[in-house]
Amino acid sequence: TPSTPESAAPDVGVQLFQLPWTSIAEECETTLGPNGFAWVLTSPPNEHIARDEWWASYQPVSYELETRLGTRDEFADMVARCDAAGVDVIADAVINHMTGQDAPGAGWAGTPYEHYEYPGLYTAGDFHRCGLTSNDDIQDYDSREQVQTCELVNLADLDTSSETVRGTIVAYLEDLLSLGVAGFRIDAAKHMTAEDVEAIVGALPEDTRIVSEVIRGGGEPIVPEEYAEFGEVFEFTYARDLAPPLESGVFSDPELEGDRPLHVPAGGAIVFVDNHDTERGEADVTYRDGPLYVIANALMLADDYGTPVVYSGYAYSDRDAGAPTDADGRVLGASCAGVSGPVEDYDDGDRTCVHAWTAIVGMLEFRAFAGDAPRLAGVDEGDAYGFEREGRGVVAVNVGAEPATVTIPTSLPAGEYRDVITGATRTVADGRVVFDLEPLGVAAIHIGAPTAGI
Ligand code: LM2
Ligand code: CA
């Protein structure tokens, strides 16, 4: 009998946007751990302004771990439970700035603040006041100096070149590490010099995972490559390239040898179909697109480039609307148990639960077996397209409204395989697999799920 093909837990993350800590802990135990997700990216864990919009999370008031998403104890409990389930926690670190509210106020946990005055933490001299634009806001993304020392939408811009500011940020991140987090998304990294970010993260233990958010902008002087020197970076080009063929049905292979143009080298890239910002902005394919969104995620998870992060948020019609809360303003818990795919109509506030969808879970299984096998040249037939991960698996999609067939040459052993998306049986014979695909359908087989030899 042939030996069982090797598989390895894939490095796949999930962003659980604005989900309370107690619910993330549950998801780790019931869904993420069992299905092989390696890490979860949380929303920011520190005290923010007391407002209802989701983006209150991006307006820090203090580094107390008290938020609408839960308490310090709940955060610590989540990290421990996720860890026990084999899931690392990556916290969203908002360290470029403090709140942008002009009026004095009190944060979610009651901490008083004024714009540029955060008692016990920062005082006016700890902030850049760039003096380069009329209101100190960033106006010109072609100016490195403006982007890094002026204010992003009025958010008080920390002088991250200052040793005391760096020390305060490092102490905050060390506090989170003491609770067991594995690393950080560095929010708005582009708005800090790579030198400043490197100095801050360089003070943390070597094995801290760092993912810098540096939105690649055409022609802009600040590029993600600068931040790839000391950690991973989100590669925004990836999602931008993924979407157009889904609408047009015209697919072409990416660069298969060597680096992809306008992409950081694969080893340092975090890729995504969308995130909380792009689903409210530039993303062409989001949860609203149902099956097309499944296809986008499947293609990403089948690819050999970068580390994918699946995005799982909530439905909304108002881009500012926060997740549903109780009468005290705490975000309501939610469970994704039993959710198997996208639905046609969401009510505002419904969790999309993308990480629980059958197709996503199937593609994690595919990825576990695909390992680092190279992606081979694909086949584009009408609205269908597919490709092999050499000797390990084959994926195919149909973005058309009619059923479609695509034939992919493959070196997988002849035999029958369980399709990890549909559960159907797919046959490899004569060095090829013929996929009959439903409208807006996906199929994927891998070496680890043969049902019979021929
Ligand atoms: C990010 N990455 O670099 C986050 O991913 C993104 O979600 C954040 O914007 C941004 N950078 C700052 O951390 C969000 C949201 C903005 C919101 C800010 C601050 O997209 O709309 O700005 O958070 O909460 C809001 C208002 C804006 C106002 C600002 C300051 O929309 O009009 O500016 O607050 O009060 C006057
Ligand atoms: Ca800055």
UniProtKB/TrEMBL annotation:
**InterPro entries assigned to the protein according to its UniProt record, in alphabetical order:** A-amylase/branching_C, A-amylase_C, Alpha_amylase, GH, GH13_cat_dom, Glyco_hydro_b
Start and end residues of each Alpha-amylase C-terminal domain: 379-450
Give me the reactions it catalyses.
Endohydrolysis of (1->4)-alpha-D-glucosidic linkages in polysaccharides containing three or more (1->4)-alpha-linked D-glucose units
Task: Tell me its cofactors.
Answer: Ca(2+)
Q: Does the keyword Metal-binding apply?
A: yes
Can you give the residue ranges of the Glycosyl hydrolase family 13 catalytic domain?
11-367
What UniProt keywords are attached to this protein's entry? Calcium, Carbohydrate metabolism, Glycosidase, Hydrolase, Metal-binding, Signal
What is one GO biological process annotated to this record? carbohydrate metabolic process
- GO terms of molecular function: alpha-amylase activity; metal ion binding
- Group of enzyme by EC: hydrolase
| Alphabetical list of Pfam families matching this protein | Alpha-amylase, Alpha-amylase_C
Question: Which Gene3D superfamilies does the record associate with it?
Answer: Glycosidases, Golgi alpha-mannosidase II
Enzyme Commission number: 3.2.1.1
User: Could you say which protein family the record assigns here?
Assistant: Belongs to the glycosyl hydrolase 13 family.
| PANTHER family, per database record | ALPHA-AMYLASE
Q: What is this protein called?
A: Alpha-amylase
Native species of this protein? Microbacterium immunditiarum
